[in-house]
Amino acid sequence: MKRIWNLALSALLAGTLAACGTGTAEPADNSADGSSTTADTTESVSLNVTTTFAGEDGNAQNFKNSVAAWESKTGNKVVDTSATSDENFKTRIITDFETGSEPDVLFFFNGADANDFVKAGKVVSIDEIRKSYPEYASNMDDGRISASPADGVKYAVPVNGYWEAMFVNKEVLDAAGVTMPDENTTWEEFLDDCEKIKKAGYAPIAAALGNIPHYWWEYGIFNHQTPENHLEIPGAADDTIGKEWVAGLEDVKQLYELGYFPDNTLSATDDETFAMFTDGKAAFLLDGSWKVGGIVANCQSNPEDPSTLDTEKLDHFDVTYFPAQNARKTTDLIGGLSMGYYITKKAWDDPAKRDAAVSFVEYMTSDEVVPLFAQHTATALNNAPKVDETQFNSLQVKAIAMMSKVSSFTGAVQDSFSGECRTSTFDGMPELVTGKKDIAAAVQEGIDAYKAMQD
After folding, report:
1. What is the pLDDT of residues 355-406, one digit of tens each?
2. Checking phi first, is residue 281 left (phi over 0); if not, alpha (psi -120 to 50) or beta?
3. pLDDT tens-digit readout, 139-180
4. What 3-state class would DSSP assign to 165?
5. How confident is the model at residue 38 (pLDDT cuts 50, 70, 90)?
6. Within 32-132, where are the H helices?
7. Can you tell me the distance from the alpha carbon of 376 to that of 5, in angstroms, rounded to the nearest whole number?
8. Rounded Cα gap, residues 257 and 245, in angstroms
9. Is residue 365 a contact partner of residue 178, using CB atoms and an 8 Å limit?
10. In the predicted model, what is the mean pLDDT of residues 125-133?
11. Strand, helix or coil for residue 232
12. Rounded to an integer, what distance in angstroms lies between the CA atom of residue 369 and that of residue 386?
């Protein structure tokens, strides 16, 4: 159980900082005598850096503060082209690499989404960097650094992890006479709760199926599987795994037909349905740990000033497990380490930028800076800071309590089923839930695209 608790704390990393302070980080010091970092730049250079620390991401401001601290420390400059992570962002990154417009440093997914530029040799491995900078990422536990599925080599140095779970607006539940779901809530009970919420005049589920169907796609499928087989890609829509995928998407279709999503779920943006949730018009929001920061910011009169937090408003929000069915336990969550900092070959081959790029990644992944993003135990740090619950707001404390009962964490299979593979079921979700297109046929299209990419 101790192992699960440690994993749970590790997975709580992403999105838990927004209201816990955004002070400027002190310079990282990786040397034995405290004299300097491994890479020490002498001439001022400008680095192009792209991350997902933007928009509603709870660590967006912390990234800005840390960048400013590194710039002050080194005299270098960062051209920040960060953007919120979505399919357009992923496509943009792939296109940038294809056209030679990639950044010098990239914070990006370490799964299949990175396969194209990894296979093209456009990023430098951690082992290659260590040949010139032996202390690079030495503060990390190598066993926790994920390898690329493209070649089994480690490229990205992680900062923090993630989990996906169901956020709850308790004001809506109270108005509908529904009790807070917990680790014992079944799928059938969840459907009953949604019906009560709908009859009370609220949208049970805040989701933009025409924009971001990712979380419902993932958990819908997971609910027909177990942690042991969730990461398997089906060979065909009619094999065992394929049928589980079809069944999961059929569940999403059922929720749509029952009217449990917003009326405009097929045309609304994710931002619009998130606003429905925070404004008390919808009860449930299935999303990632990074959304904690967005909810907290929404409860501040000034989104960028934690001191303006309305604690009474924040107390109306909670987070719980996605209701289970079949063999999956409710406490089996989607989560893990899925992103990290890459140094591109473009920067590595530039004598003027190599030192700066290494210095920047070392700084952003140092023992001093990682806790600014995570606030407690970092999944890959050898010297993980202790958890101090007094530093957390009420929603973060509730998340910690939820994590304490987690039975397992499983990565998102969609990370290995990327690009065109997902077009038929992601972009095509409106057609699937309205019955305009057969779900099994759409799943098969995705599988065919996946196989074509493997050839």
Report:
1. 999 999 999 999 888 877 875 444 578 886 666 777 789 998 898 888 888 8
2. alpha
3. 998 887 888 988 989 999 998 878 899 999 999 999 999 999
4. strand
5. low
6. 60-74, 87-98, 115-119, 126-132
7. 13
8. 19
9. no
10. 98
11. coil
12. 15
User: Predicted confidence band at 59 (pLDDT cuts at 50, 70, 90)?
Assistant: confident
Q: What are the φ and ψ backbone dihedral angles of 202, each rounded to 5 degrees?
A: -115, 160
CA-based nearest residue to 219, from 137, 310, 123, 329: 329
Mean pLDDT of 248-275: 98
Q: Give residue-wise pLDDT tens across range 405-440.
A: 888 888 899 988 888 999 999 999 999 999 999 999
pTM: 0.71
What residues pair up with 317 in beta bridges, in sequence order? 169
CA distance 98 to 110: 18
CA atoms lying within 13 Å on the CB side of residue 18: 30
Packed helices 2-11 and 394-403: angle between N→C axes, nearest 10 degrees: 140
Structural domains of the chain ordered from first start: 2-161+337-385 (3.40.190.10), 162-334+399-454 (3.40.190.10)
Q: Which residue do the tokens 């994920």 mark? A: 146
Side chain identity at residue 199, one-letter code = K
* Contact present, 115 and 149 (Cβ < 8 Å): yes
* 136 half-sphere exposure, CB direction, 13 A CA radius: 29
Q: Which of 289, 287, 308 is nearest to 298 (CA)?
A: 308
CB atoms near residue 310 (< 10 Å): 12
- Interatomic CA distance for residues 246 and 81, integer angstroms: 38
Q: Are 227 and 332 in contact (CB under 8 A)?
A: yes
Judged against a pLDDT cut of 80, whether residue 35 lies above it is answered with no
Report angle CA 395, 397, 398 to the nearest 5 degrees.
65
- How far apart are the C-alpha atoms of 309 and 305, rounded to whole Å? 8
Contact 66, 372 (CB under 8 A): yes
Residue 415, pLDDT score: 84
